[in-house]
Design brief:
This protein is 47% helix and 12% strand. The chain has 152 residues and is of the alpha/beta class. A five-stranded parallel β-sheet has the order 1-5-4-2-3. Strand 4, helix 5 and strand 5 form a beta-alpha-beta unit.
Length: 152
């Protein structure tokens, strides 16, 4: 077989083989990069409504986390709530002491601070976070029971 005929037959085959090799290398690099990522990425904390909040807070693993100031909290809060002020300098330190296996129903007065708090907490390995978007204002407006510290 003449050399020019042999070259014309092998060049397309060689080109296809090189393209296939390139594709395989690309696939393996994507797989290797994916293997470096954690198996589960923290999901965006879900915003919940008042009925969802009420239903979820009845569960044993649920913790109601009120991120309002101590003054707001003492004026009235959801019964059994834990207070950690979002604006406190040591907010992250206080939150870091919480049990990460629990479900946290986070709220503030109207939803702005709680959204920031759950965003921060989701970067701290809390996996079960819910932002009660209506906040304490919606809870109180609905006529739900509130707790206040005993008068001194």
């Amino acid at each position: 077989m003449p050399l020019d005929v042999l070259n014309s037959m092998t060049t397309p085959l060689l080109n296809r083989s090189l393209i296939a090799l390139g594709i395989l290398i690309s696939i393996s690099s994507v797989r290797a990069a994916a293997a470096d990522q954690p198996a589960t990425q923290p999901s965006e904390p879900k915003k919940i409504t008042l009925p969802e909040f009420e239903s979820m807070r009845a569960e044993k693993s649920a913790v109601v986390l009120d991120v309002r100031t101590a003054r707001e909290f003492n004026a009235g809060h959801v019964p059994g709530a834990v207070n950690i002020d979002w604006h406190a300098r040591d907010f992250a330190d206080q939150v870091a002491k919480l049990d990460k296996s629990k479900t946290y129903l986070v709220h503030c007065q109207a939803g702005v601070r709680s959204a920031s708090a759950v965003k921060k907490m989701s970067t701290m390995d809390f996996l079960h976070l819910y932002d009660f978007a209506g906040g304490y204002a919606a809870y109180e407006k609905a006529g739900k029971p509130v707790e206040k510290p005993a008068a001194k």
